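User: Assemble these into one structure.

Assistant: Restating your components, then the assembled model:
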Amino acid sequence: MDRRQSKTRKAVFNAFVELLTEKGYSNTTIQDIISRADIGRSTFYSHFQTKDDLLNALCESIFDHAFSEQSPKEESHDFSDRRDLRGELTHILYHLGESRGYVEGILASESGDVFMRYFRDQLTGVFRKEIKEVPEGIPMDYAVERCAWDFSETVRWWMSHDGYSPEDVMGFFWHYMGR
Amino acid sequence: MDRRQSKTRKAVFNAFVELLTEKGYSNTTIQDIISRADIGRSTFYSHFQTKDDLLNALCESIFDHAFSEQSPKEESHDFSDRRDLRGELTHILYHLGESRGYVEGILASESGDVFMRYFRDQLTGVFRKEIKEVPEGIPMDYAVERCAWDFSETVRWWMSHDGYSPEDVMGFFWHYMGR
DNA sequence: AAATAACTGAACATATTGTTCAGTATCTTA
DNA sequence: TAAGATACTGAACAATATGTTCAGTTATTT
């Protein structure tokens, strides 16, 4: 990618995250972002269509990183072994823990829910592969979704409670999951 | 309350829910709401400050109903008996099931997350009273929050999956909770 | 019937949005 | 390194939304 483009993208993302934590999503105008990022008006519009579009792009870029090293492993590992799932999830926790400063701000802002939706969609895919059977009478779909929302909400909880390691948090999550 | 006021409020709420399901939150302008509700511009602003304010008022009014008959019971019932909690929650499911047409639209829209936040806050209060002890090593706060998000998310799941009764859904939720 | 309170709707200043375009800077590749 | 392609700039534009004000109308209460 052209260095000019990625420079612009980074400037916009940084400005946006700053503004999100300062003023929230709805109070942040595109004009604010342009001024803060110090780019031309038409440049913004050549990269993003709307503020929503920008938010989606930001979430995508974050999860590209957190889930990036998953795909290759998916092929070679046996997911029917529970410990692999646990390792996989811990790995995601490490990633998110490293970009905490970034993620914490987004989750605390109005647009935290959009972030959560992305996260959950990704997780749903992970759990759908893993879960083979559910208790009698429980819809498969419910069981899968429940894992995804529990894990994503656990992360949101973590981001607003300092002092826990990824392993701690994995322990909390797993305690209710493991069976 | 003056009949004129409640008439205006209802007209605005109805117009708003319609527009939410049609266009989503961010694409709905205050002007849209005013036109659809067929009220004067200044009337809207004498009732609500902003679109956000309106959304909050709408959520409040819905939960006033769903949680309304809780308070009196709270005094007379013994919450350390698990079956009371289950009845309490089932009761909420009935309420939400009755106003499904209303709630389903909001939950499916952009502003579903705001609705969820309200719901969860209410539920957190309910569970905080109920939960006296948690497993060794699990933060109390996490355990309580987890119940609240599990129940609220279960409702959201229900609202996008037709054909289940309140009892069915209570069964799904309780299966993972009951211990 | 009089007093009080709510609604109306036009008019207003202000601000944001999304687009266009001619000019400038940067990158690529031949 | 020169030429061509690509990206950025920033001013100007029309269109739209916002939030406020106020004099006039209608409904409710006492």
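Chain A is about 75% helix and 0% strand.
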